[in-house]
Input
Amino acid sequence: MTQEIRIPDIGDVEEVQVIELCVLPGDTVGPDDVLIVIESDKASMEVPAGVSGVIEALTVVVGDDVAEGHLIARISSAAASESVEPEPQTQIGETAIAEPPTSDEAPADSQPETDGGHATRDCTRVEISVPDIGEAQDVAVIEVSVSVGDRVGADDLLVVVESDKASMEIPAGQEGKIVEVHVTEGAQVTEGTLLVTLEVAVGSDSGDASTTVDAPTTADAPTTADAPGTIAAPITQGSVSDEQELTLAQKQRQLPAPPVAGSKPEPESVSGNSGSVYAGPAVRRLARELGVDLNNVQGSGMRDRIVKDDVKAFVKSALQDNSTSTLGAGSGIPPIPLVDFSKFGPVEYRPLTRVRIVGATHLHRSWLNIPHVTQHDEADITELEAFRSSLKEEGLTRGVKVTPLSFIVKACCYALKIFPTFNASLDAEGKNFILKKYYHVGFAVDTEQGLLVPVIKDADQLGIWELSEEISALASKAREQKLGMNDMRGGSFSISSLGAIGGTGFTPIINAPEVAILGVARLTNKPVWNGTEFAPRQMLPLSLSYDHRAINGAEAGRFVVHLASLLGDIRRLSL
Ligand code: CAO
Output
């Protein structure tokens, strides 16, 4: 028989939009399986099938505007029925468009046709009571995990009870909908005390031998018209002493012994972590699924027992912490705690410029992704400086200032040709070098807005005058905020020169995805032993940071020694 599934009562809202299709034609669905998700400007709702069967056709697509009664799907089902309006399920944390119908106002086809208040045409009510609890006379209800209207699966926890020796979880044992909850937390109960009334589809496994699991049609279904099925709920038990003979209708899982009043619960292993936690199997299962270490969760139940809501609140709070902290989180990196500095003295908030924010992200990414090592050395540039001085006059005529940087760029290009893996990137899998056959050298410029790295294209093909002009032009453009994206793209190696400022060495951060960067510190006059005597030499500190995944220390050492030798004898730059 084909059943037509329509949009249910959506309250005051006239039209909602289909935002998700959760099934495809040919899919087999159960009553609780969601067919589509609809959304108004206030809430989203899941629309379940309401019946079991196979999807014949979906009659909506994502983006459709639909109203109450609109046909969603046709389901071929063994159960005889006419058009079905499934009960909407409101998503967690969102406002309902329409209140979900209570058991008394459920849609026509799922509404029990009462006979004596309990029997239905295709549903029946099952009373779930405290099962055999052995010798324990009275046990306390320490957790009620369901409310009226909740849909539960067979494994879903209804109630947790606790004696002075053990705690027991009482699951539903079958799929259905909670229509009455008869106990509250703290209540004393004993074997046979009525806990919950569940409405279950006839044909589902009620635990009653007269109910047939595979009998979906009304005609085949056994009638339970005169009395509600009453079953003792299956339980999962805690560390019950041997003399307690508990009847366990279903699977048994170990619970920690409940704490003696005022004492801590027994330690229990959670996901391989030892810890003293007081929580039942369902909570532990949820914690395992979400990767939560229960040792970190504060229980809000009786005697600090951890309940499901505590685990959910813990996850929510952890997610919020990660998304609000700008100081680093995620990837298992503990975030730096935010401190209210105004408690210690006056403070001022000054926003970072966009250049700084973008730069910070880039630097952070590189630092976190690349194992950096820095190799330090010194180049004797006494002869280079003498030559540079000799160019000063000509430079004035040309209107170009030649600084050590132009020679350093030139020397780097030479060294990169000898050591091609420094003018490279690693591929995504880290299994190949991508060797670049061009030499585009970026250099850091300190601007008011922050650090910018313009790129000298084909630096290897430029002479010292041209390099000096290019450096000066790009640095001016950077300081005037006139650099275009093209001026900063395509670098294959970078240089950061702090020589004009000072310092004896530093660790520059690699300009990823490049694999190396040269830091240059301030030139100093030093006495250097020449084999016979100490002579004053102009020594330039070099600091090469390299990606240790791509470059070995020995290679880095050779690169820097070679670079220093080129700078030490610039005649070699013409070879
Ligand atoms: N040792 C000693 N003096 C040096 C030197 C060094 N290593 N490098 C440059 N100088 C001298 C220059 O010769 C020049 O002296 P004169 O005016 O007497 O000729 C003076 O310092 C100023 O040079 P400059 O800064 O104008 O030119 P530059 O080519 O050396 O540098 C630039 C250009 C754009 C790189 C530089 O101005 C700059 O912005 N540097 C900062 C880079 C930076 O912030 N790096 C850190 C990034 S990572 O955190």
The longest strand covers residues 534-547. Residues 403-405, 443-446, 451, 471, 475, 496-500, 508, 520, 522-523, 540 surround oxidized coenzyme A (CB under 6 Å).
